[in-house]
Amino acid sequence: MLEFRKIGASYDGAVVLQDVSFAIEQGETVGLVGRNGAGKTTALMSVYGVPDVTGHILIDGRPIGRRSYEPTGRGVSLVPQGKRIYPNLTVEENIMLGRASGRESHWNLARIYELFPNLERGSNRMGTALSGGEQQMLAIARALISGPKLLMLDEPTEGLAPVIIDELISAFQKIRETGTALLLVEQHIAMIQKLASRYLALRKGELVGDGPVADLDRREVQELIAL
Ligand SMILES: Nc1ncnc2c1ncn2[C@@H]1O[C@H](COP(=O)(O)OP(=O)(O)OP(=O)(O)O)[C@@H](O)[C@H]1O
Fold first, then answer.
1. Of 34, 99, 112, 136, which residue is least crowded by CB atoms under 10 Å?
2. How many domains does the chain have?
3. Signal peptide location in the record (predicted)?
4. Is the separation of the CB atoms in 183 and 47 below 8 Å?
């Protein structure tokens, strides 16, 4: 449902992605791995036309236009690195910001609160009054309310305690069971191995791996990715 065709990306002329092509099918869970600076975040941002992008990105076979809200309206949502919670809005207001008009979806507020009961309990609190783990849940909730067919997550477990990471893994499994595809950016392959069936690997802006997640155990694959 999401396809990259020969994507290149650069910041003020400095090339950070080159000739990146892959496709993610409906309902798939894919892990995108690579070292710091390999271009993972840039790959996700290029769906929104940021930074300067060449090549073609398609959703359900149709190219994406230049409007930054178009991917969300067409079923591709991002949980950005660093969560980006709005401090002056309540938890519920933060969630509702993510709503994309006109999209019917499994994910209404009641189902989101069932997935993350902590958010329901804290629904009237300010978004930034939550713990780090709850803020990550809030960022995921805000993306889910848009009814994505593909949810892209940029290092969702960064800086979180193992017990919270386990809660998130269980939430991702439930999200996946609804048929939503996941594209999970992670530096730690253990998380990818728990959730994904396929991996993509970036190294210095180039796609150097695309295969079954079991291959991540092979030393030659790890050396290629240089994790
Ligand atoms: N706003 C920016 N302006 C200039 N260069 C940038 C900008 N953002 C990222 N870069 C550069 O682009 C390259 C790819 O960065 P990117 O954040 O996509 O990598 P990443 O794989 O997501 O790394 P990380 O795990 O650190 O988030 C890096 O060399 C980085 O320094």
1. 99
2. 1
3. none
4. no
Residue 12 Cα to ligand 1 middle (Å): 13
Q: Is residue 122 within 6 Å of ligand 1 at its C-beta?
A: no
Q: How far is the CA of 37 from the centre of ligand 1 (A)?
A: 5
Burial (CB < 10 A; 0-12, 13-18, 19+), residue 191, is buried
Residue 204 identity: K
CATH number where 13 lies: 3.40.50.300
Does the CB atom of residue 50 touch ligand 1 within 6 A? no
pLDDT at 198: 96
Q: ipTM for the complex?
A: 0.94
Q: Helix, strand or coil for residue 37?
A: coil
Task: Quickly list DSSP for 15-28.
Answer: EEEEEEEEEE-TT-
The residues, any chain, with a CB within 8 Å of residue 3's CB and separated by 6 or more, are 22, 23, 24, 56, 57, 58, 59, 61
Taking 70 as the threshold, does the pLDDT of residue 180 lie above it?
Answer: yes
CB of 39 sitting under 6 A from ligand 1 = yes
Joined tokens for residue 77: 């949502």
Which ligand 1 atom sits closest to the C-alpha of 38?
A: 21
Confidence of residue 104 (pLDDT cuts 50, 70, 90): confident
69 touches ligand 1 (CB under 6 Å): no
In this prediction, residue 167 carries a pLDDT of 93
- The reply to whether the predicted model has a pTM over 0.90 is yes
Rounded Cα distance, 181 and 25, in Å: 7
Q: Name 186's Cβ contacts closer than 8 Å, sequence gap at least 6.
A: 31, 32, 33, 155, 157, 192
Predicted pLDDT at 101: 66
